[in-house]
Amino acid sequence: MSTRDPEWRHLCVEELECRALLSIVPTPLLESLLGSPTCVSGLSVAPHDYDSVEKIVSERLADGSLSQSGAGRIRIGKAWVRPTGEIETEIHVDPWDDSLLGKLDEMGIAIGGLSRSQGVIMAWVPLGKRDVIARFNHVRSLELPEYTHSLIGSVTTAGDAVLRADDARDEFGVTGSGIKVGVIANGAANVDNSMLDDDLPSVTVNANWPGPADDDEGTAMLEIVYDIAPDAQLYFSSGATVAGMIDSVNWMVSQGVDVIVDDIGAYSEPFFEDGSDTIASTVATAIASGVTYVSAAGNDAFNHYQAAYSEGASTSGGNWHNFSGSDNSLLSAVPEGTVEEPTLFHIVLQWSDAFGSSTNNYDLFVYAVDLQGNPTGTPLASSQDVQGTNSDNALEIISLLNMGAATFLAARVKKLTAAASNRQLELFTLNADGVEYPVATDAIIGHHAVDNVIAVGAVSASTPSTIQN
User: What pLDDT, on the 0 to 100 scale, is given for residue 388?
Assistant: First the structure.
């Protein structure tokens, strides 16, 4: 049994005892929402594959629970789904064929975004239509999108005064005149209303990637830019998916944008390299063309772990990694959720092999914990992709939905086979309230860490010298 920090152990006991007093999401309801649950405490594995999502959507359409949600779109596992049952889907096309857009329109299928250069159409595909679309000429696959994450801070700052932009305008007459500024965020649903209310000037929105209709982070960012540089020409494009993010950066460059600002994180992109055909490589190309690129650094200092593999106790097929001393598990605090608003919790593991050529096999596991914070029972979930064919990504991801009380989970990393080489391990927990052994160093990854990107943190207007975590 590992020895844990007393504060973490106390929190574990407190949360687990509290959870026992709370009502539990009924098993039948969990099954209707997510298929068979991994446990009855409100935690369930979030489905990542299209077939599983279709099955759940079909069940929820049949029992009427999908249409009763009242939201414009609902998160089911990895997917976004409309109350009428359409699943947001990436249709991969090679070679590109514009006639496909007409065929989808004839089927009544809504298009949410497209990239001719990447051969991707983002569409809301109804149940029963996936196989029909898959038979169209030049369609290579239909897949759930690789979504990005908004790096939204906890504090809204009075940026104009803190940055003394108001003083600069008064003293030097700099107002952004002649400068094009582009904002990339999830969505800008009310940008038109902000223009009508004079909170924004005219904004050029990328028609191919306008973003979801229920997200307004981009509108808020545009308004901040407008406050600071009132005469700048403004542009917006959605980076809600990896494909959309790459296309948005390229579109901004094609529009002659001078400054690009984003608040997007992509944790399925490489941590240890820029890679090729990635967001990072696209941003690097934009900078080389003369663009000034500003990106939110994120709030991951307490949700990040990094260390060289340290061989621990043997287990079936390999050895556990020791996160600290002889402790081969990493506690993570999972916020509470409800059936109506579940918390989607991710654990992302990468190691220092080049993407697309990993021959070292590491696996990721998540366990419930006992009152001392130690893993117990069989894993709640695992990610055990096989690396070893020299064409695999050094990546494992687990996603869980929490529809119950706040709790703690333990992550474990296993290195398979003695022949596998030791590598540097890097792990993030997304939508978590911290990990047991946080490593703030090197928590800025992906395109935020590209040379000459200006990665920025958030501060409170009342304490502008203190960067938010």
Answer: 77
